[in-house]
Write a structure and sequence with these properties.
The chain is of the alpha+beta class. It has one domain: VC0467-like (3-Layer(aba) Sandwich), CATH 3.40.1740. The protein is about 25% helix and about 25% strand. Strands 5-6-10-7-9-8 form a six-stranded mixed beta sheet. Strand 8 and strand 9 form a beta hairpin. The two termini are about 25 Å apart.
């Protein structure tokens, strides 16, 4: 097992350690959505989504962080000469604003998630030292910043109406997991399997249903299913 996988496991264990304590989960706070085994939508199957501040409220928005595409970052940003990780790929972030013509990739909504010790003027904080920025020029500036070593450039996004997403969670399509910076940049190919196994374990151990904290309305605790308690 690699060091990266061990680190992910350690973070996950820490997250699950409080699973027997009654907490509420709030989707307005930094969260991952982890597709459960029941989710059969081919686009979202086995996906891990980082929820990000929406630029189109009242919609909720997220970026799939474990679906690398074939196109490389340097193909879209050739002006960044000293790009860290020259073979770094673009990630497919969701079905919104995607097109079928590779040459028009620049017309899709591009985002970058990255770690930084301080806020960037063009970026919005997601959780701890993880930020998100959109737009070709803003992303190019971030890629050129020698202080930034952890990043993922993402094309497209996922978004929902509030009630639509809450309905999917309550129907068992998603586990809700507190967002952890260490997990955002972990190995994409292992992230879903590690998190979904943890979610299965937490669900099996859950004694009494705890309430899912939703803005605007509260659901009875008996409707709860499939969540991982935050720390």
């Amino acid at each position: 097992m690699t060091t990266g996988i061990l680190a992910v496991c350690a973070v996950l264990i820490a997250t699950l350690a409080t699973s027997q304590i009654a907490h509420s989960t709030d989707l307005t706070k930094p969260s991952f959505l982890v597709a459960t085994r029941d989710l059969q939508d081919p686009f979202f199957q086995h996906s891990v989504i980082l929820m990000v501040p929406s630029t189109e409220p009242p919609l909720l928005a997220g970026l799939i962080i474990n679906s690398p595409a074939k196109q490389r970052v340097r193909d879209l940003f050739p002006q960044v000469r000293d790009l860290k990780g020259p073979d770094e790929t673009i990630y497919t972030g969701g079905p919104v604003e995607l097109d079928d013509v590779p040459l028009l990739h620049q017309h899709r909504e591009l985002s970058v998630i990255f770690r930084a010790s301080s806020a960037q003027s063009s970026a919005t904080r997601v959780v701890d030292d993880v930020y998100v920025a959109t737009g070709h020029d803003a992303i190019a500036a971030i890629l050129e910043d020698p202080r930034i070593t952890d990043f993922r450039v993402i094309s497209g996004k996922a978004q929902w109406l509030r009630d639509q997403l809450y309905g999917e969670v309550m129907a068992g399509a998603w586990y809700v997991v507190p967002a952890k910076p260490e997990l955002v940049f972990s190995d994409a190919k292992d992230l879903w399997s590690i998190l979904v196994k943890g979610g299965d374990l937490d669900e099996a151990r859950a004694g009494t249903a705890t309430q899912l904290n939703l803005p605007y309305r509260l659901l009875d605790g008996t409707n709860w299913q499939r969540r991982i308690s935050p720390d």
